[in-house]
Automatic annotation (TrEMBL):
It comes from Aurantiacibacter spongiae. SMART domains: AAA (SM00382). This is Heme ABC exporter ATP-binding protein CcmA. Residues 6-191 form the ABC transporter domain. It is an enzyme of class 3 (hydrolase). The gene is ccmA. InterPro entries: AAA+_ATPase (IPR003593), ABC_transporter-like_ATP-bd (IPR003439), ABC_transptr_haem_export_CcmA (IPR005895), P-loop_NTPase (IPR027417).
């Protein structure tokens, strides 16, 4: 895996009139995972969007070495295509044929189903497949376990653990406990409370 780093210093984020967080620092090296926690609306998704370069912080800097992959509530698959063809669109761009995790993710019998008909958990499984296929060393995961049944949630955790063991970085915003070795936690307090 390509070497990677992700750090942020003195980050502040405002959304509308609300200051969500300030003076936030983080630094992740290869093999490290960070669990971002906090009550609803404290800015976990906003932090991920800042780290992904999709949202400008009010203050502070983000430094990154290595490609990143983002998993959030937006599924980057054509809703009108059957799942197999929607994934194949990316396979052509990525110049690859698919990923070995398709079967454990329970997707092989869904390839003929239009993406818009997939259930919540099936969509999340498809998002995990896309995440794996990108082979990016840095994973930014926003509620990756939401909608997954117990087996799929355990598999998702295993995938994150394997990714970090292989030298990747994972930053995971989740309300659910995560069972990952060496996981550190960043709790975003509710400044408005
Ligand atoms: N485009 C926007 N304009 C103004 N406010 C926004 C915008 N997007 C999000 N917010 C507000 O920013 C705050 C933080 O949202 P964010 O989604 O980052 O929180 P979160 O910690 O991920 O929440 P949850 O745990 O519910 O997923 C919320 O109060 C939300 O209403």
């Amino acid at each position: 895996m390509d070497t990677c780093r992700l750090s942020a210093s003195d980050l502040a984020c405002r959304r509308g009139e609300r200051l969500l967080f300030r003076r936030l620092d983080l630094a992740l090296s290869p093999g490290e995972a960070l669990h971002v926690t906090g009550p609803n609306g404290t800015g976990k998704s906003s932090l991920i969007r800042i780290l992904a370069g999709l949202l400008r912080p009010l203050a502070g800097d983000v430094r990154r070495a290595g490609r990143l992959a983002l998993l959030d509530g937006n599924l980057a698959l054509d809703e009108h295509l059957p799942l197999g063809r929607a994934l194949a669109f990316w396979h052509r761009l990525d110049r690859r044929t698919g990923h070995a995790a398709m079967r454990p993710l329970g997707l092989t019998n869904l390839l003929d189903v239009p993406v818009r008909f997939l259930s919540t958990g099936q969509r999340k499984r498809a998002a995990l497949a896309r995440l794996l296929e990108q082979e990016a060393p840095i994973w930014l995961l926003d509620e990756p376990l939401n909608g997954l049944d117990a087996d799929a949630a355990a598999l998702a955790e295993t995938l994150v653990g394997t990714h970090c063991e292989a030298g990747g970085i994972a930053l995971v915003a989740s309300h659910q406990p995560l069972a990952l070795p060496g996981l550190s936690t960043l709790h975003l307090p509710d400044y408005a409370a």
